[in-house]
Amino acid sequence: SKPVRHIAVVGAGYVGGPTAAVIALHNPHIRVDVLDKDPRRVRRWNSPHLPIYESGLIDIVRVSRDGASTCLRATADKPHQSTPTNHPPNLFFTTDSQTSLARADVVMLAVNTPTKTFGIGSGRATNMTTFDAAAKEVALYARPGTIIVEKSTVPCGTAQRVRKMLDEVRPGVDFEILSNPEFLSEGSAVRNLMQPDRVLIGSAKTPSGRRAAEALANVYAAWVPRPRILEIDAWSSELAKLVSNAMLAQRISSINSISAICDRTGADIDEIAKSAGLDPRIGPQFLKAGLGFGGSCFRKDIASLTYLSESLGLPEVAHYWSQVNSMNEWQRDRFAQKVIQRMEENLVGKKIGILGFAFKKNTGDTRESLAVDVIRALLQERPAEIAIFDPCCLSEDIMSELEPVLNATNRERVHVYSDAYQACQQANAVVIINDSDPFRQSPAGQFIEPSIDLSAKTKNIPYYDNSIRNMQYMASKQEGEMVIEGSRFSYRPGQSPICAEDCPDCQSTKLRG
Ligand code: NAD
Asked: Which domain of life is it from (predicted)?
């Protein structure tokens, strides 16, 4: 197969940005252009403060975006840090899609594919508007012979859909379409990309399909061991992605359903999860009872799998998987009701602190935050204030995610704080939504109760002292834990990993590329 010299990644989001950065890092001879139609996003990718927070991402971006020499300067205070030398700048973020698409050997489509909220399949089917628009742009500007890669999670049969569109827009021109779903997990994206469990490449079973798959496999082989690169057919590849997410989410709903039994019987859900997880056939991951799964992927991918099953005339299969989402919603409602009942069903005049808003720890991604439904239920009880703190989230992202539950009367009751102690000052209850590291200090990522560390902290924060006196800790060992009458949690104030939206550094950085 022909060597790849130029890659264009369409969509500089949670998947497109980090994936492009890691490909560029390991393939210094390939130019990687990341395209986004949002100029603000592009500007931030070109600035010292990236638009998304992922541990280790900035270091990789510095090497491939700015070249290794810049990177060495930037890390002069850490001389022990090993940085690749002579890495040319080969990662570019730009809004100029036409130029980049016209020179690309490979185009990866990494745009968002949310659930459809209208018409046929509403609430289940994938809304393909954004994906189709991006594919059409590729069809218009790409060179003949370009390999088009589905990086986004798409419904089965999308490769055929793209093929049809290409045939309409550019009749008679040869394009190969591959499915190459992404399995990274937010919060550990860089680690997942650097050491992937597997890379799936789905192609047409034709000689040209196989050649295209081989060309993409060679890009990954720069750092991924060959046995982990699986070349399969496009349908299997598209379906495999949905199945992985559905199975992970299923474990969470399963353990949460058992947590409801534990609540009634007094059995300990953590002990049960531990015991089940020690069986090597089950394994310990994704067995932590809590508020359930949030984020932009699990719910939508299960909905997509449900819709696929329905479309294939398999209602039993559709029902089976849709229960995973139903259980997830029920668990959140159950938790919100528990908080309200615990407060004697009277929240009027009270302040509730909300710690954690991102859909899980170590990410700033607020999409499908678990806090939203909890806050919706709490607001119905007319508390005086909902005080939110998350060390990784931008306040504007939090407020825009909450938009659907806000109205003229309750809006002024919701505030986002940049300091955990202020959010909890004189709170009547504090609800911990996610297990963000600052809220839980645990040795090995193991779930523990909020640590009780009253020593040094209290001296500097007089108001905090007051609330501690009548503190009462309710241990419901679940994530989405609640602390009544004042807060007890250990919080390490430190620099927030993300900068404010109006950060002068980012604003002043000129658009490159
Ligand atoms: P995202 O919303 O963070 O990023 C998508 C980006 O695409 C946005 O910046 C948007 O402005 C841009 N975009 C949309 N249309 C465009 C166009 N025509 N031209 C240029 N840019 C355009 O989404 P994401 O979280 O990165 O997810 C992307 C896809 O990857 C989805 O299909 C998702 O299901 C899948 N996925 C996501 C994750 C995850 O953890 N977020 C993991 C695996 C797979």
From this structure: Eukaryota
pLDDT of residue 35 exceeding 90: yes
Q: Which of 233, 266, 298 is the last residue of a domain?
A: 233
Claim to verify: residue 248 and residue 194 sit in the same structural domain = no
**215 and 252 fall within a common domain:** no
Residue stretches of the annotated binding site for NAD(+): 36, 41, 113, 153, 186, 300, 367
Which residues fall in the annotated binding site? Answer: 36, 41, 113, 153, 183-186, 241, 286-290, 294, 300, 360, 367
Residue 12 alpha carbon to ligand 1 centre in Å: 7
Number of domains the chain is built from: 3
Q: Where are the alpha helices (DSSP H) in 312-355?
A: 315-342
**Domain extent at residue 218:** 6-233
pLDDT tens column, 153-193: 999 999 999 999 999 999 999 999 999 999 999 989 999 99
Question: Is the complex ipTM higher than 0.90?
Answer: yes
Coil, helix or strand at residue 29: coil
What average pLDDT score do residues 185-203 get? Answer: 94
Rounded Cα distance, 20 and 287, in Å: 32
Kindly report the protein residue whose alpha carbon is nearest to atom 32 of ligand 1.
Answer: 152
417 and 456 housed in the same domain: yes
Please state, in angstroms and as integers, the Cα–Cα distance from residue 122 to each residue in 116, 231, 305, 417, following that order: 5, 33, 14, 36
